[in-house]
Amino acid sequence: MERLREMINISFLQLEQILFQELRKEFCESFSALLERLDDQIHAACDKNRYEVLEKVSRGVETLVGTVRFRRRCYLDRAEVARLLHTCGTPVLDVGIGSGEMAEAIALDGHEVVGIDKSSKAIAIARARVQLPNAKFIQADATNLPFEECSFAAAVCYLSLHHFRDPFPVLDEVLRVLRAGGTFIIVEYQDLLRRLLYAIDACSTRFQAHPMGGFSISSLLVEIYRRFDVQKVVHYPMLVMLVSKKPACCL
Hints:
It is a single chain. The chain has 11 helices and 7 strands. By secondary structure, the protein is of the alpha/beta class. Strands 3-2-1-4-5-7-6 form a 7-stranded mixed β-sheet, with helices on both faces. Helix 9 (168-177) links the parallel strand 4 (152-158) and strand 5 (178-189). Helix 4 (47-65) crosses helix 10 and helix 9 (168-177) runs parallel beside helix 11. The model is unreliable at 7-13, 22-31, 67-73 and 204-211 (pLDDT under 50).
């Protein structure tokens, strides 16, 4: 508990320096170990202090992840994901648009993109942000998509699946609306980071509007392999990217 208090009291700059020291060799294991220690310390905190602790930790994580240097070393930029779709055809479905940044990157890469989100607020934010003729936003439930079968050449879920208590019906719907051979890219947090964010979600009022699913990357992989032809799985210190295609036999 004392160590946790010390970590909270140090400046964000010092926290960033500590993380970069851990990541200097660019091994995922070192970052995972750091997250695991932080996760253990959070759960060891007294219940009466947990809200305050997690509020401060969540602000620290958001600030740290927002730094340019940290993103370049540990994160996967949306423009990089969009470039992977460059030869996939159009239109592209963006599932869970958030503020519309992923859809914007896809549109700027030349694709027609349709972004969906259950939140009317997210749709309004995305429409205000992305005013491009090849980008369209629709309020819809990802577990019951309002599209015909085989409507899309590709689909993306960029850091959105963890907002579903049960993300696997979303996979079924994406499979249904993708054309045979269509590309499906999922970018998600690594398990330990998601455990930390899940703890924040469970204990902090700031995250109550966005429940986080409790699935693991391994269980997600199992479900992906059951439905799609997996092309590659790329692990980053903070994230994992799954690239797959809809099998032709699904026609």
